[in-house]
Amino acid sequence: MSAQPDTSKVVAALVERARAAMVTYDNTNQDRVDDAVTALAWSIYQPGNARDLAEMAVEDTGLGNVDSKVIKNTRKTFGTLRDLMRVRSVGVIDENPARGMVKYGKPVGVVAAVCPSTNPSATAVNKAMMALKGGNAVIIAPSPAGAKTTARTVELMRAELDRAGHPEDLVQILPLPVSKELTTELISRADLAVVTGSQNNVKRAMQSGTVAIGVGAGNVPVIIDESADLSAAARMIQQSKCFDNATSCSSENSVVILDSIYDAAIAALEDAGAWRCTADQRDQVRAQLWQNGVLNRAVIAKDPSVLAHVFDLPEAAKRARFFLVEEDSVDGAHSFADEKLSLVLTVYRALDWEHAKHIVHDVLEVCGKGHSVGIHTQDASHARDLAATSDVVRVLVNQPHTLGNGGSFENALPFTLSMGCGTWAGNTIDENLNWRHFVNITHLVTTIAEDKPDESDLFGQYWARHGK
């Protein structure tokens, strides 16, 4: 009779402890709430912990590289803390006497936070900070591959909460070894599920009956047009593509280059460290990248020297930073148009601007619709046209995509590790996950002077066109 009763009891006990912690959490006092959020941030931001967790993550998962994960642990945490310290989230959060409206922020309850193997420490802290900012408690469901790192991350968060005088049980984790059954049970018992990771996990959460926020798959295409600074564009693409060995959903997967500057742009990418595969080498890469219809774990988020060996490329390719494969057409799933989670960048030659947009559209139809696109240009009309015609939530202009898409100190997007992709991807949010998704709002409404226009103000133009 199985482990189901035990699973149910284990999760029920965690949820009960979370609710008890919320009772003793001073979650109507903004200063105390902000103190708890800062405690979580400091638990991972302090240099020793940031590096230890980065090293654990690479050892646990075999994905990415330590230096990039240190940056994730610190930069994302610092940016998120900046965002959270600038807003009120509990008690009276907004008051507009002229409109007779006062808004009160209140907790959503116990949050189930499902976290991916690609960011086993940074995502856990990021979601916990947002959850506690809303006055909630959070229970983290780690990926099995990164569970040891996430467990250590939770230990550090709990210790820092205790040091600052807050209930430790505001942050908990499913017991190891984590299982699909435990995660499913947690989602069913939580008040809100926030899921980052595989699309299978997102779909299960959306079908659970619990209010759920999921994110979409990434597969970012980026255009380089005739007006772009090619050297700067190549440097930014290299910086972004190589960050954490392309584990991010915001990593560039395709670059679309206008015909008139194609050769010059390719040369700039090579100068930035790219290896340009021949037609035969491209076939070798394809044969190793997907096996039996899934990405080969031997190439996901691996160092370039490892890839060069697996792809059987020349010795000189081991010194490259990433790899270009040129394609004439956009094929379907498990082709170079799909998300690759590796240092392989597909290149398309566009005949003109309209063709470039068409390629971007086709790539997103394969994978990544709703997520984001990028463009390197000095032509604002091209950027606006791309935004107006692309079914994505974010369009980044002249930025390293991975370092800008989830928030930046040089753009206005909120810092996050979870990108909502709208109904295009079956998501309930069309923005970066942020604190606002972790609060309920009570509206106190009082009367104001009558705001009722005359009929002619609303119907006048319609009557003039069509008559009464």
TrEMBL record:
Key words, A-Z: Oxidoreductase
Ranges for domain Aldehyde dehydrogenase: 7-272
Annotated GO MF terms: oxidoreductase activity, acting on the aldehyde or oxo group of donors, NAD or NADP as acceptor
PANTHER family for the chain: ALDEHYDE DEHYDROGENASE-RELATED (PTHR11699)
Name used for this protein in its record: Sulfoacetaldehyde dehydrogenase
